[in-house]
Predict the structure of Glutamine--fructose-6-phosphate aminotransferase [isomerizing].
Amino acid sequence: MCGIVGAVAQRNITPVLIEGLKRLEYRGYDSCGVALHVDGHLARSRSTSRVADLETQIQETGLQGFTGIAHTRWATHGAPATKNAHPHFSPSSEDARIALVHNGIIENHDELRAELTGLGYVFQSQTDTEVIAHLIDHMYTGDLFDTVQQAVKRLHGAYAIAVFCREEPHRVVAARQGSPLIVGLGKGENFVASDAMALAGTTDQIIYLEEGDVVDLQLARYWIVDVEGRPAEREVKTVHAHTGAAELGPYRHYMQKEIFEQPRVVGDTLEGVTGIMPELFGDQAFRVFKEIDRVLILACGTSYYAGLTAKYWIESVAKLPVNVEIASEYRYRDSVPHPSTLVVTISQSGETADTLAALKHARSLGMTNTLTICNVSTSAMVRECKLAYITRAGVEVGVASTKAFTTQLAALFLLTLTLAQVNGRLTDEQEAHYLKQMRHLPVALSSVLALEPQVIAWAEEFARKENALFLGRGIHYPIALEGALKLKEISYIHAEAYPAGELKHGPLALVTEEMPVVTIAPNDALLEKLKSNMQEVRARGGQLYVFADVDTHITSGEGLHVIRLPEHYGLLSPILHVAALQLLAYHTALARGTDVDKPRNLAKSVTVE
Ligand code: G6P
């Protein structure tokens, strides 16, 4: 989603800004732009194409400057168009005094727009952002830091902004409320960005701004004030952010590469786990796990499906009741809080606005025992939670999550065992059995990925369909949901998932010869029930595509296509089955020729509500 980079330096800063935007590209965007202070005036370049094209555009025009800001935009207010791309200028393009970039949503933009229009400002975009640029220009006192502090008091909603002014060439001012923003410190130069990763290779000295902070960046100094305008000390951390997306290697897309990285990163996530120890989740974990008697999981998207899977695990092994909620719903609904709840957020990015808001909402209801399963150790989610388990998926570039999901599942299984142990529900034999299974996961996953050629053959068929049904039962129902989500995200085929027992309560009406029905058939207690559900599909002419465990005795026949997974993996089976579904979605999208790594309209890191 939207990304910000800004710099004040004594060298041409364009390469740093472009490099920063490239590092933020994976989050998803539809337009981008750079503004610079050039010889006493403001200049900008914007594009609805890729950052690489913006770079060429900038090279062709020879745009250079010592002070500047840059942005990748994911449209919320106004279509993806050059006029809506950031940076925005005020009072006008021709006579620009203020340049500004913004992440977030300004909720009172209509009211401010009316006020500023009344004052003579002419709006050139449909964005909520442009009102902030005009507001700052209107309120400008000759001191940008002071002006921004006053101006943000008029804003309702979420924002991270970076702004500079024609009259103050060696200064960038930035502010945050509800959207992440960091400061990067250099020698005689300073930076601002929405994510430390944007500055990887430029500086590792990072300050995480807090809610309501406003920062004044100059060449050799910086100054932060808090929400009340009081001087604020913020810790400087040395952050070894990933140096960007890895090379593609032999793969055609990042998504394919990331699917095949799963054996390694699941192994990395569980590395060093030689026994079940609460301390793996943080120093206070044992006390917290002793205090709680129920679990509330909050997440969005794929992470929500990881949470749904964990519900089956925790209830069955640790015997604790689990409630899993979509974060964007939970934050606004009346729920019944219980102080002895362990609140678990799951997030690959650690910056999802809805999940962060849901976490804060849970805390405001008195539930202070919080834990996150997160892939970014420096993220807001990790900083906000009492306990954390950091998955080690590495940077995930493909917008459709794959390796982040399976590493979340690995961490959640570990959490399940830990809660069971603390509750006296895990025998030494069980612990040894599960640990052995977890250690074997990388090998088991590799044998599933070796099925790729068979999946490719199916994908050719799927590519011609416009609808698909996914069926699973029990612990594999969330995996059916995730399989359907993967297919729709990247191939744009309409896909729905049902617990197989629900077929006859509605979706069976959709089943014809044109409807592929993907079925997850592990060799578990529900297998016979599932076989009956499959009969119901066959009897209506539906085409079954079954991922069956090796010993299920389901064999291919007319209208029944079977791919055998090498082994049945008990409780951990969802981690294997989902890898097969990821491959199906990937190869179907490939056959349809869609933009696999950057599907239309989607973003990797959803930092707005
Ligand atoms: C976006 C991404 C999904 C992700 C979801 C939640 O929609 O495209 O892949 O599952 O956000 O993100 P989080 O970072 O909180 O896991």
